[in-house]
């Protein structure tokens, strides 16, 4: 039975991934988000980096999602407690309203960070992402409607609307899990296998020009060597952001600096990585010893 349900879920996500009709609204939303940040100038770039989690070295969206989901869960539980009580439970009702409102407020941060992360996606992941956002927006609308009904004293209808919104959150969460675990959106794409303790000669130091990346292989693993200001550094050829090849330059465009060096802060700010690249600045010491 569980296997059958899993197949149904896979069929739904596969159906979404092949809906090219989602490309047009996705493009329009992407342009609107990009334009909003561009209009803010330098502040927009800083805000984008903040919402994406680049400065923290960790995606911000998964942490903020816990606020609305946890608050709405508590609100539903308080509603169930109120409904199961034979006598009026004013404290449970008040707690349900408070946690419901807190979840609606927290959803704002989750929406903003989610939009920034979604804008970095393409193709199938982008299509699933826009449906994920639409489903969660529907859930937020249901909870806001429940909050409005409570203010009018229509508690029974409000509880029903909250339960419907809670079920909708599960649907949005399923799509979000598909993006994270199947499409690896926002995850670390670098190869974090244990690094070798020793050094392996792969290239003559004189054969590496300044600020020109050179890809080599060590035991079948791609490594990019870069010389900057006379300092030789090595980093994994697999970008931690989307798994692209770092040798093409797009992943490391801030003076070829390496974490632990003086330019590490500038490098992090100029890229959109939330996970640090796999790099080693000890290559220069090895080069001096083997010269």
UniProtKB/TrEMBL annotation:
Domain (Rieske): give its ranges. 200-256
Membrane-spanning ranges: 93-116, 128-149, 161-181
The record, for InterPro entries, names: DUF2231_TM (IPR019251), Rieske_2Fe-2S (IPR017941), Rieske_2Fe-2S_sf (IPR036922)
Any keyword ATP-binding? no
The residues the entry assigns to the signal sequence are none
Entries under SUPFAM superfamilies matching the protein: ISP domain
Q: GO molecular-function annotation terms?
A: 2 iron, 2 sulfur cluster binding; metal ion binding
- Could you tell me the superkingdom of the organism this chain comes from? Bacteria
Arranged from A to Z, the UniProt key words for this protein are: 2Fe-2S, Iron, Iron-sulfur, Membrane, Metal-binding, Transmembrane, Transmembrane helix
Q: Does the entry feature the keyword Amino-acid biosynthesis, yes or no?
A: no
The name this protein goes by in its record: Ferredoxin, 2Fe-2S
Please give the organism: Caenispirillum salinarum AK4
């Amino acid at each position: 039975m569980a296997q059958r349900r899993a197949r149904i879920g896979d069929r739904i996500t596969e159906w979404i991934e092949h809906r090219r009709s989602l490309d047009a609204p996705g493009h329009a939303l992407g342009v609107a988000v990009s334009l909003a940040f561009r209009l803010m100038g330098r502040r927009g770039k800083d805000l984008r980096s903040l919402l994406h989690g680049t400065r923290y070295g960790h995606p911000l969206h998964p942490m903020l999602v816990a606020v609305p989901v946890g608050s709405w869960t508590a609100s539903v539980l308080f509603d169930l407690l109120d409904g199961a009580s034979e006598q009026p439970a004013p404290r449970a009702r008040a707690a349900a309203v408070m946690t419901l409102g807190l979840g609606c407020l927290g959803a704002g941060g989750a929406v903003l960070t989610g939009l920034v992360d979604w804008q970095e996606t393409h193709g199938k992941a982008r299509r699933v992402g826009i449906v994920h956002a639409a489903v969660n927006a529907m859930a937020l609308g249901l909870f806001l409607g429940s909050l409005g009904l409570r203010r009018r004293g229509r508690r029974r209808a409000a509880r029903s609307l909250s339960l419907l919104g809670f079920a909708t959150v599960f649907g949005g969460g399923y799509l979000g899990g598909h993006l994270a675990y199947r499409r690896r959106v926002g995850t670390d794409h670098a190869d974090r296998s244990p690094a070798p303790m020793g050094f392996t000669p792969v290239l003559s130091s004189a054969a590496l020009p300044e600020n020109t990346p050179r890809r080599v292989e060590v035991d079948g693993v791609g490594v990019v060597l870069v010389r900057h200001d006379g300092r030789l550094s090595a980093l994994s050829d697999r970008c931690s952001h989307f798994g692209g090849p770092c040798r093409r330059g797009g992943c490391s465009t801030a003076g070829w600096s390496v974490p632990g060096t003086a330019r590490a802060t500038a490098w992090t700010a100029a890229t959109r990585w939330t996970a640090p690249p796999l790099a080693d600045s000890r290559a220069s010491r090895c080069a001096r010893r083997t010269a």
